[in-house]
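Readers of this paper often ask what the protein records in our data store actually look like. The remainder of this section carries one protein's record, kept here as part of the documentation.

:::
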Amino acid sequence: MLPVSKNGKGKSHEYMYWEHEDTCAIRWGKWKAVKKLTDKTWELYDMQKDPTENHNVAGSNTEKIKKLDRNGIIGQTAIMFYPRVM
């Protein structure tokens, strides 16, 4: 990510996945999805219109949630090699 943000060179990724404590998140373009690791339900936010994440639009964007959930599973698989502190 650093080479892309610093000088515009390097390979960019379609999405970014991360975990913090008991929550995981995916950033995909203008969208950000968030959920508890133990939960199955995602919250979805349009970060261009709602950067403070006050309006969950998951109910009206089910196709985006399905795509993000598939990507989240990929991200979680890659990250689970590191120990979690809970």
About this structure: Residues 62-79 form the longest helix (18 residues). DSSP finds two helices and four strands in the chain.
